[in-house]
Amino acid sequence: MKKTISLLLCLALVLSISVALAGCGGKTRTLNVYNWGEYISDGSEGSLNTIKAFEKWYQETYGEKVRVNYTTFASNEDMYAKLSSGAVSYDLVIPSDYMIARMASEGMLLPLNFDNIPNYQYIDDSFRGLYYDPQNLYTVPYTYGVTGIIYDANVVDEADVGGWELMWNEKYAGQIVQFNNPRDAFSTAQYKLGIDVNSTDHADWDRALEELKAQKPLVKSYVMDEIYNMMESGEAAIGAYYAGDYFTMVDAQSDDVDLQFYYPERTNYFVDAMCIPSCCQDQELAEIFINYMLSEEPAVANAAFIYYASPNSLVYENEEYLDELGEETVEILYRFTDVFGERLNEFAFRNLDAETLSYITSLWETLKIG
Amino acid sequence: MSRKNTLHAQKGLIQRLVLAPYSVWALLFIIVPLTFVAYYAFTDNNDQFTMRNILRFFNETSSVVKNGETREVRRYLLIFGRSLKLAVISTVICLVAGYPFAYMLARAPARTQSILITIIMIPMWMNFLIRTYAWMTILQDKGVILNFLRTLGLRVDNFHIIGTETAVVIGMVYDYFPYMILPIYSVMAKMDLKLIEAAHDLGCSGAGVLRRVIWPLSLPGVISGINMVLVPSISTFYISQKLGNGMFYLIGDAIEQQYVANDLHFAAAIAFILMVVLLVCMALMQRAANRRAFA
Amino acid sequence: MKPVSKVYTALILIFLFAPIIILLVFSFNASKSLSVFSGFSLHWYEELFRDHQTLGAVRNTLILAVSAALISTAMGTAAAVGIYRLRNRYLRVALDTATNIPMINPDIITGISLMLMFVYVGRLFGAATSLNFVTMLIAHVTFCLPYVILQVLPKLQQMDKALPEAAMDLGCTPLRAFFKVEVPEILPGILTGMIMAFTLSLDDFVISYFTAGNGFETLPIRIYDMTKKTVTPKMYALATIIFFVILALLLVSNLMDSETSQDVKDARTKKKERKKAKA
Q1: ipTM beyond 0.85?
Q2: In chain C, how many domains are there?
């Protein structure tokens, strides 16, 4: 038996090496892309496989082969840790606003050559020169959205719905889930108390910690992706997450669960944007890729796959896409900008100094061990 | 030169040749990286020597409310204590449940042995993260176990498994159980049956044989089993996140959190202290076992 | 087996395979949920085969595990042979200690320590990237090596020392004696070591997490990175396929094994019969 297994191992090696070698023939340009997990239309459910489509489009347009090395990260901080150590080199990354500001301030981003990105014209004006990139040098926005509260209408009283208070409501002890990352979790308390989420005053963060400590006995679980299963199956009845993800949960909810969504008066606003890190090996190719991502077919496919709002007019004016989403979805994904208006920028996360960040980490640990 | 001398020289050459790659490898990729951990643990961002990171581990406090009282606790010592507790519980369970199994395995017919060993290893070929996910489906409040109890008509609405220490321990035991069985089994399989028979013949009872003959002979396997379960379970960070509902913050979580927060020096300091503690523990255990074996 | 031990074995097997059964069942779920079963469907298997990213990660994981297993087996076996013959006490203690370190160190420390070193060396040489397939392979070989050595060394110690001596007395060169006499004796240890190395490498997440670099994504890392969105039954479908492939392999090799042992038996009985006939 062992001999058979070992033989198979050897065979597998020979095969895999030959497959790997077969892929190497001919001159190819390589593009290293670093993105969130599950954050690009990948061909599942009959959608467009963006990476394959780009490779094909590039060959048809330039008569040259290109290979996209696509890798994913789990959080902004994970991505930053890898990139800042100098251990890896990527040509294109898609982080969130506050992390972009941090990278820009540390000289980790290259200014874009917008001549190579003509499709940038389709980006809505309100997404230019935002707080994370005031001079509009480094970024092309990819998606945006807000955090909201998802609840099970079969469990939660309509009268209790409205603000962040729902996540502190003792009636629902043991049915509330909270974010399992410091920045998002603290922000829920800060919005509730009306504290600036970008404060550098330790006292402000201490107050938020007290609020989270008070919430802890009511919390069932600190979650990231676990929230999907918990809300879908009715394990939990109240939780905060990113707006578009609510629809993914509704699609899979169990029969006795009726998930609903609302945004509280203040809430987190985020923009994830494409940018080129300073370790980039082929800036021109990265810009070609950005430009491709802004063209209609891939942009619509990505927006439909990710289920977040898109700042690209080719997407939000696309009738087919809007029909597919339906009125209610469009309302939640896009119309919040009318409700919040200018205040959105003030709700967004900004880059904080290292000292404050390390203080937040220690408060987070205090919350977790309490 | 005589033939014997040539042979001797050839032997010496082969000797050096076979050992050389591993010696170089061990030096470069086992010893040197550890000096990097030590280096990072004792330096700051400007490469200056500092004890700050190490002291921070022992001194940093948090105020924690317990039974209505607010107390200052040394944060990392508390985290370390909890990790140790859960890891020890898991190790003991693995040992108690695995030891008889390993014994049975070693006494089974050769074919049964190889089949059972493979069966034990099959789950390890499926991904560790996926297996942990599957445990969530089993243990959660509307999961397989509690739903089953509900269909039996039991009232279990105030009973939880996921998010408790039990769930974390189940996850650890599940993932590291094979690591306990395999070393014990391989020692037992080599055990001389005649010794056991002789002990029986000399009037030893079943329990006596176990205590005086089998247990001492199997000690080396037990020790390496304990090592192989304790070490990964003390440092895990995925199991506690998924099965502990994010409520259990263990030493592995602390290291990962510091890595993600980009404080490599403090992450290295925690790792360094953990490493020293484990090395001392294992050395002590090894010594105790040696003494016992020769007594 | 006694009834008690039967029940006990059954309990352990149920415990070990409970999550596998869950994987199996939910891989056929019609909806996206991992906890609510809403009907049978092969949908996720279709999805899996359309997902090039995941299939690529599977391929990477296999390439890594196979190479790590083969390299660590070759080097580990040589090392075990060397350590076994080593007469220098200090060198032996040093090598034994080095071998034990990766086993006593939690994988998180092995991962971080290697990452720190690779990054430092990368900076020293001004390389654009210091983590890639090779560094990941080095990391995997490093933590697999001790397991191989600890499987092979005992087999050498059990071997009759007179065997290779006799072979050499009969005119074999040491090299020939090694391959003709020693290797067959320690082969079971080498194979077990190789399978262990393969299994460990396949299952590793933590060390890969810290040493993963550009464009070489393995399955565990891909799954871990799904934490903002969600893990779908697609991954369960993948696990189910792996399970059945292994099961098939085991069945086939078991059949082959029993055939060979049958052959051996036949040969023996024939020999006996011949002897009898002669007598």
Answers
A1: yes
A2: 1
